């Protein structure tokens, strides 16, 4: 049988993450014997061994490694579906739009105002997040749509509509010599000894190599720039969050950045479709909008 129960997947993930049946049972708030029986039953139904059990402990088999990769995504999808169903059944439901705090501010404000002017549309609730979090919020069902940026954000698996393509600027400490320049090049901003570019975590949580400070939030980054410890290069429209201690200078040869509105694939939501149509109209893409 190929069918799997969500309870079985939760049990399996707990053991796979702890690599210890006792700790996994404690985490799940159940006794160890029922957990062991459930895992053995799962292995019999799948016809494979998921764990190697010996005196040295517990380890995943090759088949267990595959299920470990798949189980988390499957449980996330089930959770996301439940969230979307609950929201769809709420007569006072609103659309949740995720966006990086401070990003594409004018576009966001214009979109919300224009959508509110449309008759019979659902209200939009803005969910502000940190860099790179929109994809997770969409996949988990915590957000219905998101404003994201190509080529920086993870757009894999989503439907998208391009809204705005723009250049980038360097955000520098106001007292730095480069802040007086009318324009800069990437080579110049990437080779400032006293202002190494800040490093954001990758999708797996690790940081790329480099001398710049490790940052996780935009507030951290803003203060480090103000203190003269780092600089950053961002889309021109994202400079709305800059502090008085910051200066924005255009970077002429920085690759263009496209703001897109993204939503889960194969959506049949009338509310999402209405918001996408409004966004496409504002961007001038309403001749051939890719609406759900």
TrEMBL record:
Give the residue spans that cross the bilayer: none
> Which Pfam families does the entry mention?
HTH_1, LysR_substrate
What sequence ranges are listed for the domain HTH lysR-type?
A: 4-61
Which controlled-vocabulary keywords does the entry list? DNA-binding, Transcription, Transcription regulation
| GO CC entries | protein-DNA complex
A GO term for molecular function = DNA binding
PANTHER family listed in its UniProt record: HCA OPERON TRANSCRIPTIONAL ACTIVATOR HCAR, TRANSCRIPTIONAL DUAL REGULATOR HCAR-RELATED
What family is this? Answer: Belongs to the LysR transcriptional regulatory family.
Q: What is this protein called?
A: LysR family transcriptional regulator
Top-level taxonomy: Bacteria, Bacillati, Actinomycetota, Actinomycetes, Jiangellales
